[in-house]
């Protein structure tokens, strides 16, 4: 059986379902092929469930410090199973919302595993999709265009395979029925830091092992240093420049043991389990790419600015094309692809304008160039930091660690980058992202009146400080 659609989206994650909705809005007949549940990794194994647990961790940490606020709490304990149940409830509510949006926009959702076909009797070009249903039957869809949105999967450390018990990924961590007393987290990027923060707040002994010289290596060096300091303050052990020796891994009496080496020092590590958080790999295997001319680079699908592959009727978006691998990026890539398929000329996505967020405690958010990147590009820079300790709302919250750093171009006064670490900075970064899009200057940000008392005052003060005009420092 052959069904005809204008567009078939292979994968119903954030990028895929947003693309499908935009396609329907543009009058296109759209189908989404999804093996699991709509919402993909972000909704079911990533963004949403991890943030729900981080919220539980944040509240638990605040309650432990309740006496500071005049709140005496006795017999305080954390119930991981109830936190997991709440996490599942949040995910389910959002999942139902996506299902509603599919019906509202008259998008066909096909449950099954999709593979792209090469040129055949069904289509003179590559791009038809064979859908293998759970009942063993199959169906071929012949669209005018296909969007690959198959996402990514946790990357395993060579020689240290996931077993779901002693060596786990973030996927398995989201289904723990009990808390370990100790954990080794391999990888100090956003995922590793978020889990380290969460486990530490739950009372778990945490060790981060990062092969690079610092954690959060994609962030400004000042941000990395502050996060390292604050994690250590919370009794998290942070080993940087340390390589894991996978051959040393063993399980003894229900605990894991492994060696890490940094310079001439060997670290013998022991814990209840190991969480590997070294990134995610594009999901390109067994989706039919071998039947096409589509090119891969470092395992990711190569696309142009309109998300088109070398096959002119096949597009790809989201984690599967590498890049920033963020849900909000995938969503906008999906919109661009659908606009192009509809015959429009969408503006290319400027990745430098996209905010990056890490949701530990404290949060980290940034946009634009780091200080090192700006100098590497030859900019003469001017920069300043402003501490949350001078912000009344931060003191009211009892969360005054961290700062906002603003980097400007000394010659043109243009804004080059904004880097934040502190309370709720993932909500504050959008103002900086808009300023970056508009080529604003630190002067313009600083002279935007920020209401008092708010956390956003830190950005205004940091922007003023770039020219030495901060009021409260």
UniProtKB/TrEMBL annotation:
A Pfam family the protein falls into: Pyr_redox_2
The species this protein was found in: Sulfoacidibacillus ferrooxidans
GO biological process, one term: 2-oxoglutarate metabolic process
Residues binding FAD, per UniProt: 51, 114, 150-152, 319
Chain positions recorded as NAD(+) binding sites: 187-194, 210, 279
Cofactor(s) needed: FAD
Keywords per UniProt: Cytoplasm, Disulfide bond, FAD, Flavoprotein, NAD, Nucleotide-binding, Oxidoreductase, Redox-active center
Cofactor note: Binds 1 FAD per subunit.
Coiled coil regions in record: none
Superkingdom of origin: Bacteria
Record EC number: 1.8.1.4
GO molecular-function terms, A-Z: dihydrolipoyl dehydrogenase (NADH) activity; flavin adenine dinucleotide binding
Reactions listed under catalytic activity: N(6)-[(R)-dihydrolipoyl]-L-lysyl-[protein] + NAD(+) = N(6)-[(R)-lipoyl]-L-lysyl-[protein] + NADH + H(+)
Name of the top EC class for this enzyme: oxidoreductase
Protein name, entry field: Dihydrolipoyl dehydrogenase
